[in-house]
Design a protein that fits this description.
Elements: H1 8-21, E1 29-33, E2 36-39, H2 40-49, H3 53-56, H4 61-87, H5 94-118, H6 124-133, H7 138-168, E3 171-172, E4 186-189, E5 194-196, H8 197-200, H9 212-234, H10 240-263, H11 267-276, E6 282-283, E7 286-294, H12 297-308, H13 313-320, H14 324-328, E8 332-337, H15 343-351, E9 361-363, E10 366-376, E11 379-380, H16 387-409, E12 412-414
Antiparallel strand pairs: 1-2, 1-12, 3-4, 4-5, 6-11, 7-8, 7-10, 9-10
Helix pairs in contact: 1-4, 2-4, 4-10, 5-9, 5-10, 7-9, 11-16
């Protein structure tokens, strides 16, 4: 998720201010987005949740600033999408409310299951017996303890389930599971819970009733979920904060789904974009390159003669190359794709056979001898193979413009500037 190309002022803001945000107080507001805000605590949570969290402390300050800037922009984008989702009424749709209720139920269920697990212990007598049986075998002892606790948990779970069924006066109507069953057919009834056929089987996905045994299994599993969740709720367990956090994550995702449907209603939209951007189908040629770079033509000629006499370009590169990367990697430059390198070198790579050493190529970086270790030819991909990439390209392209339009509806104001003043201009207007 990204904005349009940042302005110079925004880039300057990110470069100067973001390294200092790490020291901001957790409650300090970094950005306001309409009526919402992004705090330092929000940003730190995003940092800890990012795929780079484990490497973050090893990064230097500029790298940390870039990551913080990227995550801060993402947090702003998510708030813009969430505000628009609410404005469109997505938070009042039945599917959204049902999703929240399902999440609430699952959180309560996990609480109750964890509570059951915490009740389990191995008696000292049994533990001593296991230690004697697996003396000198620590791994086997741990496996035996885990197996014993697992069996005890199964028994405790079944016992708890039976007690809750009796307490809730649960009655099953499995005889109603037959061809012609409707979504409203009641299959389980308790004091505080109930299940209908449509609650456990998606009739759109299964217009014809699945196997009866499968339906019964789903019915019993769903009943267990509801019973344990209701038991946790009856104990006063409060998961409202977790549900609210989930809602805040779900709304932007639903908004993106709606936007994607608007922008790409069918394959015709993808095909039109494919035809308008033929370069997307081109996979450039790739080369795994070996290279030796020296500072003079005479030295390059001498190196080439030594290679012709049987010495290795890679060994020589490790000794004499003036390119730091190439020297430290013995001339192995890794993979390059067409369009990424120096034109003069690329032109030569195209015409060389694998393993051939080039003639001397002069560039602004020195005098080069190159070789192709292996190559992957370019190709043109078909429309069918590119649908996912085309979809993502369209979304990325349109989302940047769309987020800019949302900033006009929900103004974004960056609160922390180098001079301590707030200002909308830091966001590029």
């Amino acid at each position: 998720m990204s904005f349009a190309k940042p302005t110079f002022l925004l880039l300057l803001f990110l470069a100067i201010v973001l390294p200092g945000i790490a020291s901001a107080k957790a409650s300090e507001v970094l950005v306001t987005v309409g009526p919402e805000s992004v705090t330092a605590a929000d940003l730190e949570t995003a940092v800890r949740s990012s795929p780079f969290a484990t490497q973050f402390n090893t990064m230097d300050e500029p790298e940390q600033a870039v990551l913080r800037g990227s995550l801060l922009k993402r947090l702003v984008a998510l708030r813009l999408l969430r505000l628009e989702a609410r404005a469109r009424g997505l938070d009042r749709r039945p599917e959204f409310l049902q999703e929240l209720e399902d999440y609430r139920t699952s959180r309560l269920y996990r609480y109750y299951i964890q509570k059951l697990r915490e009740q389990l212990t191995i008696s000292q007598d049994k533990l001593d017996e296991l230690k004697e049986t697996y003396k000198g075998q620590p791994d086997a002892l741990e496996a035996a303890k885990a197996s014993m606790l697992s069996e005890d948990f199964k028994k405790l779970r079944l016992l708890s389930l039976q007690m809750l069924r009796e307490k809730q006066h649960v009655v099953f109507y499995t005889d109603r599971i037959a061809e012609g069953i409707t979504p409203d057919t009641l299959l389980m009834q308790g004091d505080k819970i109930s299940l209908r056929y449509g609650d456990i089987v998606d009739v759109d996905e299964f217009p014809k009733m699945p196997d009866k045994e499968w339906v019964e299994e789903q019915l019993y599993q769903r009943t267990e979920l509801l019973l344990f969740a209701q038991a946790a709720a009856d104990e006063g367990v409060d998961v409202s904060a977790a549900v609210e956090d989930y809602a805040n994550e779900l709304l932007p995702a639903m908004m993106m789904e709606e936007l994607e449907q608007e922008w790409i209603p069918d394959d015709a939209a993808l095909k039109a974009y494919f035809d308008a951007n033929p370069e997307l189908a081109q996979v450039p040629e790739r080369w795994h390159v070996g290279q030796l770079v020296v500072s003079s033509y005479a030295q390059a000629a001498a190196m080439r003669r030594r290679i012709e006499q049987g010495e290795s370009l890679f060994v020589l590169a490790g000794r004499y190359s003036i390119d730091p990367w190439g020297r430290s990697h013995n001339g192995d430059m890794g993979w390059f794709k067409e369009g990424e390198g120096v034109p003069a070198i690329e032109q030569r790579l195209k015409s060389m056979a694998d393993g051939e050493v080039s003639d001397i190529i002069h560039t602004g970086k020195g005098y080069h001898l190159v070789t192709v270790i292996e190559r992957r030819p370019g190709k043109t991909r078909s429309f069918a193979s590119m649908k996912d990439k085309l979809r993502q390209s369209i979304v990325d392209e349109k989302l940047a413009t769309y987020l800019q339009s949302l900033q006009e509806k929900y103004p974004v104001e960056w609160k922390i500037l180098a001079n301590g003043e707030s200002g909308k201009e830091a966001a590029g207007g």
